[in-house]
Design brief:
The chain starts with about 25 loop residues before the first strand and ends in a 5-residue tail after the last strand. About 15% of the residues lie in helices and about 20% in strands. It is built from two helices and five strands. A five-stranded antiparallel β-sheet has the order 4-3-2-1-5. It has about 100 residues and is α+β, with helices and mostly antiparallel strands.
Length: about 100
């Protein structure tokens, strides 16, 4: 079975201060490479100066990460357990995020 992450058009990268909690994003230019292209929703961060946000992956990205052999080989990524439907990634740099939906 092949799992693919749904195609979402890229929108221009907003300035860092415009990445807000509760928005759908796609991860780009991030290490480890197995996180590139995954999509999820940014989570609330209590800090007033936000340069990193937590990202709750959507179900298809969580499943993709679970099956990605690069993730299993990396010590930097916690591979989602079989019963996890949405994986939380913590402290993702804002400059590694594109909005994955129109901002209007």
């Amino acid at each position: 079975m092949t799992v693919t992450v749904e195609e979402i058009p890229f929108t221009p990268v907003p300035p860092q201060e415009d990445i807000k909690p509760g928005r759908r994003v796609r991860l780009v230019n991030i290490s480890p490479a197995s996180l590139n292209g995954l999509t999820g929703t940014t989570q609330t961060n209590p800090s007033s100066r936000v340069t990193r946000l937590d990202v709750l992956l959507d179900e298809s990205s969580t499943d993709f990460l679970r099956r990605d052999h690069r993730a299993r080989a990396s010590s930097k990524i916690k591979v989602p357990a079989p019963d996890v439907t949405r994986q939380l990634l913590t402290r993702i740099p804002n400059d590694c995020m594109f909005y994955a939906e129109n901002d209007s």
